[in-house]
Design goal:
The protein is mainly beta and 561 residues long. 4% of the residues lie in helices and 45% in strands. The chain has 2 helices and 40 strands. Strands 1, 27, 29, 30, 32, 37, 38 and 39 form an 8-stranded antiparallel β-sheet that branches. Strands 31-40-33-34-35-36 form a 6-stranded antiparallel β-sheet, with no helix packed on it. The longest helix has 19 residues. It is globular and about 80 Å long.
């Protein structure tokens, strides 16, 4: 009895030990990735002295601008993408290049578990007495914060958290008497009177003690320009002092079609702000919706003055197709500012935002780096040891233990996380910056049957496409298309190919406004269509919701836990 009892027990223990040993998974190697933008809007040669709108195409929302000498810098919302808070650089206000990011460490912000449209909301970037200041909101990850740097390229400090400051969209203003103020969006005093009723608050900040003066907060704008008309979503405040007046710029109407920019002013910060009788100073909501190549949803502006004395505005807007759909996210545009009777104006009522117009009178060589507007081809052959700053990761995985650049390859270690997960997927994304584009990648076929790899068009957890490949036993490999259309991802199309582990295969996604198509090309063979004419609108903000644009890039995952 004893022998019969011990023998099976020993076998069970041995089996348990075997099961407990994790199976090694090999990384998937990508040889290159390419993105090609082909918008008809950008075709043709610019006339001498002209520039092209948008100046930062694709997902670059909520621009805030600062000048140091002859250099201009912009910061933008990044939501749950990391590194966070992209910093752009220009010498002429027209040609912008991605300089780097301000949030590069988990000690600054931890966004694990967030949805893609949570995270870092509208920042304000300012330069004052040799130091750059960035103030913003980490939604779901700590609230409002302030970071600083001597150089916009970094390193940026860990945050000073501002628990007294509620709401979103904080602005920092340095008065000429040495006092510092923070304006921001929040709920009004008492109960909101209607849906979308918000207010702009103002607090004094002590930069030496790094704290908000606790009893200094008060409402300076209640609701918007005219509370009796029930204005909605007053936000994105920016304070300036010009010719003895304090000016307050705010977005009003929400970030959709009714978006606008309005302005107020006062002689003293402790006195009421007066709204401009000519508000809004920027909007596109009063133009015909069915016009060709529209630019809409304009607002959330910031102003800058050149050394020559001219004023310019950067602001967000969108370029929809079929009137309301856009996959490229909210983009950054540039327009001159005129002053009339002591008030700034960006665009006259009823005037469409021009796609091309006269450039600022600034004689400067363009900043170096990959272009952010116009038609271009961008390619990464993974030849450097540092990840190209155009790449974005999701949710604060700054350590990147699943990513290596080695031997002129990007090597991704698969994990059991799909693109629907709110954990960190093994995914790198670069912005879709054109309504018409092609993007492709070449990877080495993984030997493990439990591993898939490919490229993704990603809007959010519930709205994306995954064009992947995985081993299929003796039959070779399976090319498949997975789609999330408002819920869990579903396998839609697949085809078998005769290939061997380690061979190269190229995968390609082609987008043209409302349509998206998928192709594959085994090594040494012609490209083939997997499926064409799929619904591209599910990658639009109109369908998917949220605040981000589509990103495109390589993905690898383990298909079993």
């Amino acid at each position: 009895m004893r022998l019969r009892w011990l023998f099976p027990t020993a076998l069970l223990l041995a089996a348990a030990q075997v099961v407990a040993v994790p199976r090694a998974v090999e990384p998937v190697a990508f040889d290159w990735f390419e993105y090609r933008g082909m918008d008809p809007l950008f075709e043709g040669v610019l006339a001498k002295g002209e520039y092209q709108n948008p100046v930062a195409a694709g997902f670059f929302p909520d621009p805030s601008i600062a000048r140091r000498g002859d250099d201009y810098y912009m910061a933008h919302s990044s939501f749950a993408y990391v590194p966070g808070l992209p910093i752009l650089h220009s010498r002429d206000l027209v040609n912008w290049r991605l300089l780097g990011h301000a949030l590069t460490r988990r000690s600054q912000v931890d966004m694990r578990g967030l949805q893609v449209s949570q995270g870092i909301f509208a920042p304000t970037l300012r330069y004052h007495q040799g130091r750059f200041y960035l103030i913003g909101t980490a939604v779901g990850a700590g609230g409002n914060f302030l970071i600083t740097a001597k150089d916009p390229q970094g390193p940026w400090s860990d945050p000073v958290w501002l628990p007294e400051i509620g709401g979103i969209d904080p602005d920092i203003f340095f008065d000429d008497d040495g006092r510092v103020f923070i304006a921001h969006n929040d709920v009004p005093e008492g109960e909101p009177l209607y849906d979308g009723h918000r207010a702009i608050w103002l607090w004094e900040y002590d930069p030496e003690a790094e704290r908000v003066l606790p009893d200094s907060g008060r409402v300076i704008v209640n609701g918007g320009v005219d509370l009796s008309e029930e204005p909605v979503w007053i936000e994105g405040p920016h304070l300036y002092k010009v010719n003895g007046w304090y000016y307050l710029l705010c977005a009003e109407g929400g970030t959709g079609y009714n978006h606008s920019e309005v302005v107020f002013r006062t002689r003293k910060l402790d006195e009421p702000f007066e709204p401009y009788s000519g508000n809004p100073i920027l909007t596109q909501r009063d133009l015909e919706r069915g016009r060709a190549d529209p630019i809409v949803a304009a607002g959330h502006a910031d102003l800058v003055q050149t050394p020559e004395g001219d004023w310019w505005s950067v602001f967000l807007a969108t370029r929809p197709y079929d009137e309301v759909f856009y996959n490229t996210g909210r983009e950054t545009f540039l327009l001159p500012v005129s002053w009339k009777d002591g008030w700034p104006r960006i665009l006259a009522a009823g005037q469409a935002i021009p796609q091309r117009l006269d450039a600022p009178a600034i004689d400067a060589a363009p900043a170096e780096g990959a272009p952010l507007t116009g038609n271009f081809t961008w390619r990464d052959d993974f030849e450097t040891r540092e990840l190209n700053p155009q790449w974005n990761l999701l949710r604060g995985d700054f350590e990147r233990d699943w990513l290596q650049l080695r031997g002129k390859q990007l090597q991704l270690l698969p994990k059991p996380r799909s693109m629907a997960s709110q954990e960190q997927p093994v995914y790198l994304g670069r912005r879709q910056q054109h309504q018409r584009f092609q993007t492709s990648a070449q990877l080495r076929l993984p030997a493990d049957e439990d591993v898939s790899a490919g490229i993704v068009a990603f809007q959010n957890e519930n709205h994306h496409y995954y064009l992947g490949v995985k081993a299929a036993g003796k039959d070779g490999y399976e090319i498949f298309l997975e789609r999330a259309a408002g819920g869990e991802p579903q396998r839609l199309h697949s085809v078998s190919v005769d290939a061997k582990a380690g061979e190269a295969i190229a995968l390609e996604i082609r987008g043209d406004r409302s349509e998206i198509s998928f192709y594959y090309q085994p090594s040494g063979r012609p490209a083939k269509k997997l499926v064409a004419g799929m619904d591209g609108k599910l990658l639009s903000t109109e369908v998917a919701g949220g605040f981000v644009g589509t990103t495109l890039g390589p993905h690898a995952r383990s298909e079993s836990p």
